[in-house]
């Protein structure tokens, strides 16, 4: 029975939702101090790229007009400010948990702390997704279709990275993503991604490719279990 556990893994959530929690040496624009002061010149203007991968895709796929771009840049500015505030508020707790993980004496205690850290990261990712959902309100239906088709195709390419699609299969996946995206009004979430992956597995992959896919999934699961055991 097909079980699409990889689609539920945190790795995908990062691509959709935001950056990992890193209280120290953060590279996110939201974590950088405000450059505006009497002694310092204003920093470079915010661009859509400063909003992360999702906003970069909007820029590349949606052919924005000037009004849309201005509105979306304001959303990016809001995102940067919100994540900066989140980091300032939660960095001490994140630092404390990370230090406790390093000094944890038992596996059970370490896993408990890692769960707490993962929960914080999920909260930050959800904070970032708030602005991705807001951004979608400023693009037109035909732009949404192109954006969501690209998102779906990127996710499916990553999910089936262990498989070498034929040219025909790649075209079928692309066509399926485009057809599915036309009926979407919001960003595809895990349920939609799982449904699409299952459809590709059952209707596009050959039997030997299905076996290779399952083998790769089992290997990934075994590696994850080994990492957890070695902690």
Structural account:
This protein is mainly α and 231 residues long. The chain has 2 domains: 14-139, no CATH class; 141-231, no CATH class. 68% of the residues lie in helices and 0% in strands. The protein has 8 helices and no strands. The chain has helices at residues 10-17, 53-61, 66-103, 107-136, 141-159, 167-182, 190-203, 207-230. The longest helix has 38 residues, at 66-103. It is flat and about 55 Å long.
SSE layout and pairing:
Blueprint: H1 10-17, H2 53-61, H3 66-103, H4 107-136, H5 141-159, H6 167-182, H7 190-203, H8 207-230
Short account of what is shown:
By secondary structure, the protein is mainly alpha-helical. It has helices at 10-17, 53-61, 66-103, 107-136, 141-159, 167-182, 190-203, 207-230.
> Beta-strand percentage?
under 5%
Global geometry: flat
Tell me the Rg in angstroms: 20 Å
How much helix, percentage-wise, in residues? Answer: 55-70%
Count of separate structural domains = 2
Following the backbone from N to C, one meets helices and strands in this order, namely: HHHHHHHH
Q: Ends: how far apart?
A: 30 Å
Tags for this entry?
231 residues; mainly alpha; 2 domains; 0% strand; flat
């Amino acid at each position: 029975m097909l079980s699409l556990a990889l689609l539920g893994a945190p790795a995908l959530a990062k691509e959709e939702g935001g950056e990992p929690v890193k209280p120290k040496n953060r590279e996110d624009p939201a974590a950088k101090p405000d450059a505006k002061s009497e002694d310092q010149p204003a920093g470079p203007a915010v661009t859509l790229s400063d909003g992360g991968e999702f906003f970069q895709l909007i820029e590349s796929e949606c052919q924005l007009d000037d009004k849309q771009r201005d509105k979306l840049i304001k959303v990016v500015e809001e995102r940067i400010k919100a994540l900066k505030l989140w980091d300032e508020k939660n960095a001490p707790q994140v630092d404390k948990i990370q230090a406790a993980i390093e000094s944890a004496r038992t596996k059970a205690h370490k896993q408990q702390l890692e769960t707490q850290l993962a929960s914080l990261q999920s909260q930050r990712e959800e904070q970032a997704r708030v602005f991705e959902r807001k951004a979608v309100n400023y693009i037109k239906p035909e732009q949404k279709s192109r954006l969501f088709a690209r998102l779906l195709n990127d996710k499916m390419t990553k999910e089936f990275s262990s498989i070498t699609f034929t040219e025909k299969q790649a075209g079928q996946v692309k066509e399926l993503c485009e057809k599915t995206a036309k009926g979407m009004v919001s960003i595809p979430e895990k349920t939609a991604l799982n449904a699409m992956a299952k459809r590709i597995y059952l209707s596009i992959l050959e039997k030997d490719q299905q076996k290779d896919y399952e083998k790769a999934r089992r290997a990934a699961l075994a590696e994850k279990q080994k990492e957890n055991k070695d902690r």
